[in-house]
Design a protein that fits this description.
The protein is an all-alpha fold. The chain has 2 domains: 294 residues, no CATH class; 84 residues, no CATH class. It contains 16 helices and no strands. The protein is globular and about 65 Å long. It starts with a helix and ends with a helix.
């Protein structure tokens, strides 16, 4: 697994490292970029009403421009690098969202597929370069592999995080606690000589759902367990934090890799990498599969829970619930929102539609498996109503049209 002499000479001759040193500053910015990236995507999708497709195209174009300048630079430049990370976080998230919302790919499938794609990326990267060290991103090809891997980590982190928070109904707060625990475990293992490359990429994947959980906790209203800062204030806080740290690093150069990684260092990083990776992946797969199976069993029991039937969400039809029997609880909220709009009470309408969004997302893990097609149809109408009510320049007629369509599909 050692580097060949030619590989090492290529690394030495090609230039300075194009990515930052891994410090606490790195992880702080990474988590904040994830949160801001997701908020920015929601802003384009909902407030500006570009929709998922339009947001994906705009973000893809901006990402292409950012990466063009990133590849053109001869060394690591904090501003260019972190703008690229922020945009690729948005685009990677949108890749998974498009697969889930537009094509209907289950989050379980997305998680498995992106795990395989990331693995293939690393295998090909190693076959060409004989190292996966982030201290040796000194050639165009290595940098291309680096950014492709980052794209897959964001897509995978989104799929796995959404699967836990929404698909399995754990919620973003509890998911965040689980992810934070895993990050602590791998951080300690890193200090205890777990392969550096493996540790870095595992933590990098996990920081994506962690950032989403933190953003959700800060922005959600108090009545839903959040701090009630709202998406805009949360974004401003995190953007200010990112700007301050990047400016600090630009001046102090504290995250600039000092020269090239030595051949001995690269060989040390590669040593035992395959063994450590195999053990870590087996453990993660085993624990993840067991946890997934336990939670799925719990959800099947919840479907038959008397509290669900009393709440009017489902109707017991015997030993198995096979269809959406009653969604009157959601219909009531949608009807309330429509009446607020008709009475010119737009602030109350936006607050009420937020109730619907929260309740619907909370019920996803229980409702979606019953009738995925019906759930998807209602989910689309809810998204359409949210875009109309939260647009920067809302149109009353469009709002009423979207809400009437939502009420109609809930009634049928």
């Amino acid at each position: 697994m050692d580097m060949t002499q030619n590989d090492f000479k290529e690394s030495i001759a090609s230039g300075l490292n194009k990515v930052p040193e891994i410090t606490l500053y790195f992880w702080f910015i990474k988590v904040m970029c994830t949160t801001v990236g997701e908020t920015a995507a929601d802003y384009l999708n909902v407030a500006l009403n570009f929709g998922l497709t339009g947001t994906s195209l705009i973000t893809g174009l901006l990402l292409g421009i950012a990466l063009f300048f990133q590849f053109k630079t001869k060394k690591y430049i904090p501003g260019v690098y972190w703008v690229s990370v922020m945009l690729i976080s948005v685009f990677g998230t949108l890749v998974t969202d498009n697969l889930t919302d537009k094509i209907g790919v289950p989050l379980e499938t997305s998680t498995i597929v992106f795990s395989l794609l990331l693995s293939v990326c690393f295998i090909i990267w190693y076959q060409f370069e004989k190292t996966l060290s982030i201290h040796s991103i000194t050639t165009f090809r290595r940098e291309a592999f680096y950014w492709l891997a980052i794209l897959f980590t964001f897509a995978l982190g989104t799929a796995a995080g959404d699967l836990m928070a929404e698909g399995l109904g754990l919620g973003y707060a509890f998911t965040g606690l689980i992810i934070a625990g895993l990050i602590v475990v791998f951080s300690v293992a890193w200090k205890m000589k777990l392969n550096h490359v493996l540790s870095f990429w595992l933590i990098y994947i996990l920081t994506r759902p962690l950032g989403a959980s933190i953003g959700d906790y800060l922005s959600q209203p108090n009545k839903y367990g959040g701090l009630g800062f709202g998406a805009t204030v949360t974004s401003v806080i995190f953007l200010g934090g990112i700007f301050a740290i990047v400016l600090f690093l630009s001046v102090t150069k504290q995250d600039v890799v000092a020269g090239h990684a030595s051949k001995q260092e690269l060989e040390h990083i590669n040593k035992d990498g395959i063994l450590h990776t195999a053990i870590a992946l087996v453990l993660l797969f085993t624990v993840g599969t067991i946890g997934y199976g336990i939670r799925k069993s719990e959800l099947k029991l919840l479907v038959k829970d008397d509290q669900m039937f009393k709440a009017g969400v489902l109707k017991d039809e015997g030993s198995e619930v096979s269809s959406f029997s009653d969604v009157s609880a959601f219909q009531t909220i949608a009807q309330d929102t429509l009446e607020f709009i008709q009475n010119g009470q737009h602030a109350k309408a936006r607050e009420r539609i937020s109730d619907l969004e929260y309740e619907w997302d909370t019920a996803e893990a229980r409702l979606k498996p019953i009738d995925p097609k019906k759930w998807g149809e209602i989910d689309d109408k809810i998204d359409e109503a949210l875009r109309e009510l939260r647009a920067l320049d809302p149109d009353t007629e469009s709002e009423m049209t979207a809400l009437k369509a939502l009420v109609f599909i809930l009634q049928n």
